[in-house]
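FAQ
Q: What does a multi-component entry look like?
A: The components come first, one per line:
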Amino acid sequence: EIQLQESGPGLVKPSQSLSLTCSVTGYTITSGYDWSWIRKFPGNKMEWMGYISYSGSTNYNPSLKSRISITRDTSKNQFFLQLNSVTTEDTATYYCAREGYPLFDYWGQGVMVTVSS
Amino acid sequence: DIQMTQSPASLSASLGETVSIECLASEGISNDLAWYQQKSGKSPQLLIYAASRLQDGVPSRFSGSGSGTRYSLKISGMQPEDEADYFCQQSYKYPLTFGSGTKLEIK
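Then the predicted structure of the entire assembly, as tokens:
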């Protein structure tokens, strides 16, 4: 069974960087698909942030392009999100998901991140 | 970016009632549309892809239709376990974009 699990700090200070980890079990991230980060804001708006492909290439939402980085550790079957220079507007629940076709067939449980001093 | 306008924002339905949710894309998306269900405190689950194809394991009371810019999700016979948030997502063009969601409750 494919499972994704997000982890990381729930509170980040403004201007700092947000760093999250997605641990994948049941599927090797280098075998196929793209591996995405999606966030859901208070009020329910959802935003696709970007992905890292099975080959290691990346594709980011232009709205975030100057602040986002998605990387991976293939030895641990994990991929990571780093979002720089966060503001209170980055407060959201962050999900990792497997992306193909492209749509999202497996999701993590989500991690709530609050940006506050 | 393709804007996805979803309606209604909220909906109450009686058990057994048929309900419909709509998504309007700001440009044609060639049936590249998915629907998701998200129950309270859970992660989203894919219900329908390519506008009308049912994901494996999804009950047949869920169906999708539409073309061009206008798409809909129908639940034929509301069940208690269908109380959830529903949202659409266009898979036609990057950046991928989502509808604003519909909260479906039991009346």
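Q: Is there any commentary attached?
A: Sometimes. For this entry: The interface with chain A takes residues 34, 36, 42-46, 49, 55, 85, 87, 89, 91, 94-98, 100-101 of chain B (CB under 8 Å).
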